């Protein structure tokens, strides 16, 4: 059993604190993804789990055992690095077998384990090449192979796919997912790509400036972001945010754009400033999508740009001088400047406190309005 | 003129230049095999008539005319001093280079600069106080005394070269090795050291050549057969007004050969070593 | 004291790794330099040990700085270094470019090019003393046999000829270091910028001037820095070829120091001069090191 616990973990470089007391419980065999913008402390956190970075304060336990003072080699973890960190002077076979060789395993056992890993990852034809003679994707596979050979308690990944092109990346994403299903192990995976996070994770941990902002399943964080930061960070295209004000049972976004208050926000005080958020998928031109049954508001908005993607077209529309993205299913050509009638699915809209950015909860009080 | 012709001309020109560079050395080598009589006659004898190993026999005390110079001892002293000081300097320098490449600590860049500047002190300026200090401590005229000095003068450059090399080796390789179960010590020897090999090899050859060829310090710090090195021994051929050119040429050949062999052995590393050690990153 | 202890504790590993290097340099370089700095203020003579305590203040420095021979040697040294380093650099650059151009037999050429690097400076001195000798020297013999000159040319006696001969020896010995380092730079040079420049219509000269040369600059400065670390090796050459003579006409700073210290046995005064020579070396090294750092930064922006 290898659950990983971080308790009030702090990292300081000299006087500068970069990770501010993180608490996180990762269950056995759980696939947890740490996401966040560059420099938010993801790698630092991961490296503290690996033992590559000293823990300034707090405690990390793996399998119930506090590992603060253990060097990496005694933690029974393996790690895939962003640049793979393959040993350039060793062949693929030697790379794969290195950890077992260090552990003093017998020659046959090492070879068997290396062959087995190569089998799983389709590396068998390349066993006698050096990393310099492999393509990016193959290197990536060797790095993963090296990690699985040890049968570790915990897999750590630090942006393992960021050096691959888009196509390979989605392919390897699937392979990692499969790998996790075959060799059930606890995984901590760092990325700043939210698509990777959504597709791979059992649970996503969103970090910002050394804090955890939100933890939850992918759907959780997509549907119920705790604040505007998560709302814009998770989901693509990013959620549209428009400043507005509660006024007479509606939200005034600009002089001529008003949206009725969605359900559950009746208690909003008159004149309260809010940020109104909705995703492109929920703003569509009339007759082009949105077969919704819930509450729908209709808005007339000028379109400034159309981006045809084939099955759908992304539209840039304008609200109160601010550009928002909308989607058009079964597209037809749209010329810039054209004013379209849009439908907005209010059930999927969010309101955030204008000051703090914190999302306002809907109240279950249908009766009052 | 076609491209092929031009390339050929450049080749010939390069070859001639290389030849010109070699001539002074080759002339000395040639003289090593000719008797003094033939070298010194006037008008000059251009085509050697009398090539033999007599000069070598003479300086090793084997032939008919014996030169009373203990070249064997000098060679042994040189070998012991150069090899020992090279090994020690590379070990010490490597450890220092690693510290500079891998760790951050306050005062790092000024420490680096000062170490480098310590190498700029001219041998002759250093030899004056060392001569006195070594006399007081009894290190004068001993191999150990020279070894210590040579180690110190070789350390800065070794640090420079190896630092550049270790900086080239990505940090995460060592980390990956530690996750794979290595102690930091194992990670160094199994991963970082093999990858920095060319840098270390070129540092070693530079250290060796410096020690093997050094004269200014050795000439002051050594006196007797027990410690005199080959370059110092070369002076034995000069009497007040005469120089035994033939014997000296033979000894020159003896000095060059080990350096030549070693340099050829590691010359592949030398270019790689200098390319990546110095500038990049 | 407390801060010191904290510093050591926080950086224990790198300090431990550096300790042997620092230690040996302290003992072999710094300690002697402190000692010689002290003797620079005494009337110390080797033959009279008690004179070590004969403190005479700045008198040595005053003597040295008012000594015409010293200034002559200093200027000759600076001139020597400037001429030698620049010529070595130019010749090394040419050699490297030539070797880089050829493909067939390049390895062999490269090896030949490194030939002089293996020579001990003292050997180089003897070699050229032998070749430039006015009676038996091969150069004079050749000139006379070819009828280019009637009588022997006093290469090692005439003031400027001797200076030139010494510079020649020095350049012969050290050009290959420049060549090899610049060649290393040429090998490391990326092809794209050159090709891009060709496409943009540059002539070969323009490519060299605007692409290759700027890229090579750091390598040239490295070579300069490395060379200026041990320019004083020229002492060996001069000592052998002319011994600073005849009549001090080829005296460089280093030979002057040696003579003052060992022949005249005036340690104190020699040490005072030695400090000037150290400053000179440090200046040259520091100068090129600064340029190197600047060039590196420039290259980083490539
Ligand atoms: N050795 C160090 N010394 C000082 N500060 C550091 C050090 N390493 C990292 N930091 C700082 O710690 C913070 C977190 O770095 P970290 O590498 O964890 O970011 P990250 O979330 O992994 O970013 P990225 O997505 O760019 O990899 C950054 O602000 C960084 O500048
Ligand atoms: Mg990172």
UniProtKB/TrEMBL annotation, chain A:
Q: Where is the signal peptide?
A: none
**Record flagged with keyword ATP-binding:** yes
Tagged with keyword Transport: yes
Note the Gene3D superfamilies from the entry: 2.40.50.100, Nucleic acid-binding proteins, P-loop containing nucleotide triphosphate hydrolases
Recorded GO molecular functions are:
ABC-type transporter activity; ATP binding; ATP hydrolysis activity
> Which keywords does this chain's UniProt record carry?
ATP-binding, Nucleotide-binding, Transport
Gene Ontology CC terms, in alphabetical order = ATP-binding cassette (ABC) transporter complex, substrate-binding subunit-containing
Q: Which InterPro entries match?
A: AAA+_ATPase (IPR003593), ABC_transporter-like_ATP-bd (IPR003439), ABC_transporter-like_CS (IPR017871), ABC_transpr_MalK-like (IPR015855), ABC_transpr_MalK/UgpC-like (IPR047641), Mo/tungstate-bd_C_term_dom (IPR008995), NA-bd_OB-fold (IPR012340), OB_MalK-like (IPR040582)
The record's PROSITE patterns line, in alphabetical order, gives: ABC_TRANSPORTER_1 (PS00211), ABC_TRANSPORTER_2 (PS50893)
Q: What is this protein called?
A: Carbohydrate ABC transporter ATP-binding protein (CUT1 family)
Among NCBIfam families, the record links this protein to: PRK11650.1
Give one Pfam hit by family name.
OB_MalK
UniProt superkingdom: Bacteria
Q: Which GO terms describe its biological process?
A: carbohydrate transport
Say which family it is in: Belongs to the ABC transporter superfamily.
> What residue stretches are annotated with the ABC transporter domain?
4-234
From TrEMBL, chain B:
User: Which topology term describes how it sits in the membrane?
Assistant: Multi-pass membrane protein
Q: Which domain of life is it from?
A: Bacteria
Which parts of the chain span the membrane according to its record? 9-30, 74-100, 112-136, 142-161, 245-266
What is the protein name given in its UniProt record?
A: Maltose/maltodextrin transport system permease protein MalG
| GO BP field | transmembrane transport
Which PROSITE patterns does UniProt cross-reference here?
Answer: ABC_TM1 (PS50928)
Question: What organism is listed for this UniProt entry?
Answer: Rhodovulum imhoffii
One GO CC term of this entry? plasma membrane
Protein location:
Cell membrane
- Pinpoint the ABC transmembrane type-1 domain residues: 75-266
**Primary role:** Part of the ABC transporter complex MalEFGK involved in maltose/maltodextrin import. Probably responsible for the translocation of the substrate across the membrane.
* Leader sequence residues: none
Q: Which UniProt keywords apply?
A: Cell membrane, Membrane, Sugar transport, Transmembrane, Transmembrane helix, Transport
Automatic annotation (TrEMBL), chain C:
Q: Which InterPro entries match?
A: MetI-like, MetI-like_sf
Q: Which GO terms describe its biological process?
A: transmembrane transport
Query: Could you tell me the membrane topology recorded for this protein?
Result: Multi-pass membrane protein
What parts of the sequence cross the membrane?
12-38, 73-99, 111-132, 160-187, 207-226, 272-289
GO cellular component annotations of the record: plasma membrane
Q: Where can this protein be found?
A: Cell membrane
Domain ABC transmembrane type-1 span(s) in chain numbering: 74-288
**UniProtKB keywords:** Cell membrane, Membrane, Transmembrane, Transmembrane helix, Transport
Looking up Pfam families in the UniProt record yields: BPD_transp_1
Does the entry feature the keyword Membrane, yes or no? yes
Instruction: Kindly report the protein's main subcellular placement as a broad class.
Output: membrane
Instruction: Indicate the family of this protein.
Output: Belongs to the binding-protein-dependent transport system permease family.
The entry's protein name is Carbohydrate ABC transporter membrane protein 1 (CUT1 family)
Q: Which organism is it from?
A: Rhodovulum imhoffii
């Amino acid at each position: 059993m290898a659950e990983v616990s971080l308790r009030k973990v702090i990292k300081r470089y000299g006087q500068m604190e970069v990770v501010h007391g993180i608490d996180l419980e990762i269950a056995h065999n759980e696939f947890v993804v740490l996401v966040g913008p560059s420099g938010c402390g993801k790698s630092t956190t991961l490296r503290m789990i690996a033992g590559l970075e000293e823990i300034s304060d707090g405690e990390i336990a793996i399998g119930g055992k506090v590992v603060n003072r253990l060097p990496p080699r005694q933690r029974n973890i393996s790690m895939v690095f962003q640049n793979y960190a393959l040993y350039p002077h060793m062949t693929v076979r030697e790379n794969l077998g290195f950890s077992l060789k260090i552990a003093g395993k017998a020659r046959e056992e090492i070879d068997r384990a290396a062959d087995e890993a190569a089998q799983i990852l389709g590396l068998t034809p390349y066993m006698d090449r050096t990393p310099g003679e492999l393509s990016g994707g193959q290197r990536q596979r060797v790095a993963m192979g090296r990690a699985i050979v040890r049968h570790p308690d915990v897999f750590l990944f630090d942006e393992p796919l960021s050096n691959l092109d888009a196509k390979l990346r989605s392919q390897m994403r699937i392979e990692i997912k499969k790998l996790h299903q075959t060799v059930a192990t606890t995984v901590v995976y760092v990325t700043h790509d939210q698509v990777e996070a959504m597709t791979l994770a059992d649970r996503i941990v969103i970090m910002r400036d050394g804090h955890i902002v939100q933890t939850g399943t992918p759907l959780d964080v997509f549907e119920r972001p705790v604040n505007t930061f998560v709302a814009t960070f998770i989901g693509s295209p990013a959620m549209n945010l428009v400043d507005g004000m509660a006024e007479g049972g509606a939200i005034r976004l600009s002089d001529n754009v008003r949206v009725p208050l969605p359900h559950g926000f009746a208690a909003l005080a008159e004149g309260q400033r809010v940020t109104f958020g909705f995703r492109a998928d929920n703003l569509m031109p009339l007759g082009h999508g949105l077969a919704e049954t819930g509450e729908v508001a209709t808005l007339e908005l000028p379109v400034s740009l159309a981006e045809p993607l084939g099955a759908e077209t992304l539209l840039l529309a304008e609200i109160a001088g601010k550009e928002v993205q909308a989607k058009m299913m079964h597209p037809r050509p749209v010329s810039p400047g054209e004013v379209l009638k849009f439908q907005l699915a209010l059930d999927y809209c969010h309101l955030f406190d204008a000051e703090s950015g914190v999302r306002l909860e809907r109240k279950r009080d249908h009766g009052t309005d | 003129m076609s491209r092929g012709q031009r390339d050929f001309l450049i080749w010939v020109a390069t070859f001639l230049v290389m030849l010109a560079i070699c001539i002074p050395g080759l002339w000395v080598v040639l003289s090593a095999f000719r008797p003094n009589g033939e070298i010194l006659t006037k008008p000059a004898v251009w085509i050697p008539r009398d090539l033999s190993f007599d000069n070598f026999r003479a300086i090793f005390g084997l032939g008919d005319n014996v030169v009373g110079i203990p070249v064997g001892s000098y060679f042994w002293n040189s070998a012991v001093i150069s090899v020992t000081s090279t090994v020690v300097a590379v070990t010490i320098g490597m450890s220092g280079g690693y510290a500079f490449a891998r760790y951050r600590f306050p005062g790092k860049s000024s420490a680096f600069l000062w170490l480098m500047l310590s190498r700029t002190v001219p041998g002759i300026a250093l030899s004056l106080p060392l001569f006195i200090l070594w006399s007081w401590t009894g290190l004068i005229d001993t191999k150990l005394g020279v070894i210590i000095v040579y180690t110190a003068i070789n350390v800065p450059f070794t640090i420079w070269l190896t630092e550049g090399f270790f900086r080239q080796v990505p940090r995460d390789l060592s980390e990956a090795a530690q996750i794979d179960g290595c102690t930091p010590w194992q990670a160094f020897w199994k991963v970082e050291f093999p990858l920095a090999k060319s840098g270390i090899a070129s540092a070693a050859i530079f250290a060796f050549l410096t020690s093997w060829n050094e004269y200014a310090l050795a000439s002051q710090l050594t006196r007797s057969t027990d410690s005199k090195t080959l370059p110092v021994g070369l002076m034995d051929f000069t009497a007040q007004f005469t120089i035994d050119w033939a014997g000296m040429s033979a000894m020159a050949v003896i000095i060059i050969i080990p350096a030549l062999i070693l340099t050829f052995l590691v010359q592949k590393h030398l270019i790689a070593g200098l390319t990546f050690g110095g500038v990049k990153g | 004291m407390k801060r010191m202890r904290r510093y050591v504790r926080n950086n224990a590993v790198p300090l431990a790794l550096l300790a042997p290097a620092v230690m040996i340099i302290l003992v072999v370089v710094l300690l002697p330099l402190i000692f010689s700095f002290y003797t620079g203020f005494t009337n110390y003579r080797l033959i009279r040990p008690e004179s070590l305590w004969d403190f005479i203040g700045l008198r040595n420095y005053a003597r040295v700085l008012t000594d015409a021979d010293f200034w002559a040697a200093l200027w000759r040294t600076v001139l020597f270094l400037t001429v030698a380093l620049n010529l070595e650099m130019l010749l090394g650059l040419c050699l490297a470019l030539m070797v880089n151009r050829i493909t067939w037999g390049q390895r062999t050429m490269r090896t030949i090019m490194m030939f002089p690097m293996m020579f001990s400076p003292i050997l180089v001195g003897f070699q050229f003393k032998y070749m430039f000798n006015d009676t038996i020297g091969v150069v004079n013999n050749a000139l006379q046999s070819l009828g280019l000159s009637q009588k022997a040319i006093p290469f090692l006696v005439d003031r400027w000829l001797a200076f030139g001969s010494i510079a020649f020896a020095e350049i012969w010995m050290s050009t290959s270091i420049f060549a090899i380092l610049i060649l290393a730079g040429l090998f490391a040079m990326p092809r794209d910028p050159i090709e891009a420049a060709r496409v943009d219509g540059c002539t070969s000269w323009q490519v060299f001037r605007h692409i290759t040369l700027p890229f090579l600059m750091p390598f040239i400065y490295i070579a300069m820095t490395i060379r200026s670390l041990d320019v004083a090796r020229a002492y060996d050459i001069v000592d052998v070829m002319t011994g600073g003579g005849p009549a001090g006409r080829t005296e460089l700073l280093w030979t002057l120091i040696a003579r003052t210290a060992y022949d005249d046995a005036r340690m104190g005064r020699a040490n005072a001069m030695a400090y000037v020579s150290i400053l000179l070396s440090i200046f040259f090294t520091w100068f090129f090191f600064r340029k190197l750092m600047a060039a590196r930064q420039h290259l980083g922006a490539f």
